[in-house]
Amino acid sequence: MFKINAENTQSWNIQFRPMFGELVRNLVKERNDVILVVADSGRACRCDGFEECPNQFIDCGIAEQNMVGVAAGLAHCGKKPITFGFAPFASERGFEQIRIDVAYSNLNVIIVGSEGGVGMGTQGVTHFGWEDVAVMRSLPNMTVLCPADHAELIKCLEASLNLNGPVYIRMNGGIPKPVYREDYDFKVGKGILHKKGKDINIIATGPLVSKALEAADILDAEGIFAGVVDMHTIKPLDEKLIFELAGEARLMLTIEEHSVVNGLGTAVADVLSTSGSGCRLIKMGFPDQYPHTVSPYDVMMSDYGLTAENLVVTIKEGLGR
Prior knowledge:
Layout: H1 16-30, E1 34-38, E2 57-59, H2 64-76, E3 80-86, H3 87-93, H4 95-104, E4 110-116, H5 132-137, E5 143-145, H6 150-162, E6 167-172, E7 192-195, E8 200-204, H7 208-221, E9 226-230, E10 233-235, H8 239-246, E11 251-259, H9 264-272, E12 280-286, H10 297-303, H11 308-318
Parallel strand pairs: 1-2, 1-3, 3-4, 4-6, 5-6, 8-9, 8-11, 11-12
Antiparallel strand pairs: 5-10, 7-9
């Protein structure tokens, strides 16, 4: 299996965007079939061309539909194109082309959406990936990944390069808190069980995995036993693990930086509805309405209750504590 060389990464204390840029700069040196295709978004990931391999970078200008079409053409020619843009533009502005040229054709195109959720903060709703997961997981043949930290971003990119078929990698905003400090086993479609809970099991995705682990530690100290799963693959979902956890505790909670409509929570609810376990589900995420005002990223995350402290409160209420 192909492995990405991350030894030359200058700093891990950065946002997903520049980390992605550094990884791709190393990647194109190792594989001449990988081509980065952007829509005037190269500077956003600090990657505006490659000096040593200039033919592996294509800027399509502010034209996401064209970006997807170019990537599809490259995939038809046996290349491994990676498209990059902010989440709503990468996934929705070129949706028709993604649906027909990539998903329907089942091509090896990796679509990277940056700043998912409210990662763009004061830039406003036009730049928010509020519903990108819902859109992308609706497509047949599409794999949807959401890394918890930089180590898992590397795993997602490696796995995507080894898969046959289209992949959407959703990178959230902010500087992710490290969850994985040592190498670990990563498989597409297999959630990572950090701990199993007797009272509740938290299924988290993206950087909210670290928040879920913080909340579980707080709850454990209070005699409430909470499990945590990193559901890095939202499609295909690890149904076997969900069935297993549904039989362990009477309550399950999903947390995601995405609308509660048709995201991770809905995907888990679809599985639970067939489990026959009687396990209740609480969905935490963004409500089914857009914000009327915007704030810096961390403020918006707090306003929507996507913090470890609010997670603890919600769980206690759900358990009747």
